Amino acid sequence: MSRKGKDACNTSLQPKSRADDAWWDMPQVSLLIELMYEHYKKGHLISSTFSEQIWHEIGIELSQRNKTQYTVAQFKGKANRLRMLWRKFYDLVYKRTGFGWDPTTCTVTTSEDHWLEWIAVNPRESGLKKKGLPHFDLCTEIFSSSVATGTTRGVQRKRGQSDRLKRIDACIDAITACSEAKTQKLAKISNDDIEECMATLSKMEGLLRDLFFTA
């Protein structure tokens, strides 16, 4: 998708957010995604977001190019909403049969029948039919990496927990084996001592029966 196509994306996003009380029109959203992508390519995306310093830099760049100022909190809030919107579009386009993407209108494409069937099952998401997202390809590159990272970390955590459990089981087995070995060794020593003691007592002449059994 060409970045020059942003002017053709005339669909409307939610213009005002209760979370950040900021106005975002399509050209501003398009420019924000471009700036995010530039910093993403520089390796500035960490744990699915940017640092405070990078957001400040994005704010300065956006202000210089679009004469609009936002706070770091507003950038973060908008980025999170863009990620959620992208994920919904991505699931439709890549995980559902019959849905596609129009880079000119920046919207999901499908037949009216497909929309009616999908909306019947997902009535709360009916607004996606009229919503748009500029630079869907750039968003896919930015946000899919963070989703993949999060999934990988989840798998790594599960593997780490599994490895720890295996090590604990191994330690328990080792302790049990050691305990059994010591018990067997003590039992063997005890039996040998008793037999030796009885043999010695039997050789003693004149030993009274009571003393023999006491010993």
TrEMBL record:
One Pfam family per UniProt: Myb_DNA-bind_3
Residue span(s) of domain Myb/SANT-like: 24-116
Protein name: Uncharacterized protein LOC105173338
Gene name per UniProt: LOC105173338
